[in-house]
Each structure stands twice: as structure tokens, then as C-alpha cells.
Amino acid sequence: MFLSRDESKLYFPYSDTGRGKRYNIKISVITTSRYKIIKTLLLKDLGHAKANTYDIIHGLKGKL
């Protein structure tokens, strides 16, 4: 997990291994004010088709 630059959002990466999907890494975006999930993104939709969670665990200054 890591915070956004302004610390208003928490990015939580996790692996969804259901139904044989090997590279189905998701990222939930959670607000720090309400602790609610505001959206969930697929890592492959951000241009990282075969990335794993290790690649994004260490967010650099809140950049996803």
C-alpha cells in the first residue's frame, strides 16, 4: 500500500487469482477521509500487462 502525494488516497494493490487469471492484478483506491473504496483499477489497463504486485508495492511519491 502507499499514499497519494497529497495523502488523500491510499492505493492498495492485490492479486485476483480467481478463474485461472494469472495476471489479474487490481488496485483499489481508498479515501483516507472516509476509508471507502472509490474505484478499482486493473493494472493491465494502466499499461502494465504482465506486472506483478512487487512492481507497484513501492509507490514513488504517490505516483501510480
Explain what this protein looks like in three dimensions.
The protein has 64 residues and is mainly beta. It has one domain (2-57). Helices cover 6% and strands 34% of the residues. The protein contains one helix and four strands, in the order ββββα.
Q: Summed up, what is this model?
A:
By secondary structure, this protein is mainly β. It is 6% helix and 34% strand.
Keywords:
64 residues; single chain; four-stranded antiparallel sheet; mainly beta; elongated
Write the layout of secondary structure elements.
Blueprint: E1 2-3, E2 9-15, E3 25-31, E4 37-42, H1 54-57
Antiparallel strand pairs: 1-2, 2-3, 3-4
The string of secondary-structure elements, in order, is EEEEH
The largest sheet is: 4 strands, antiparallel
Query: Looking at the structure, what is the overall shape?
Result: elongated
CA-CA gap between termini: 11 Å
In quaternary terms, these chains amount to single chain
**Overall tally of domains:** 1
Give me the count of strands.
4
Helix content: under 10%
Q: State the secondary-structure class.
A: mainly beta
Spans of at least 5 consecutive residues with low confidence = none
The count of helical stretches stands at 1
What strand order characterises the main sheet? 1-2-3-4
Provide mean pLDDT, rounded: 76
Please report which band the strand proportion falls in: under 5%, 5-15%, 15-25%, 25-35%, 35-45% or over 45%: 25-35%
Radius of gyration: 12 Å
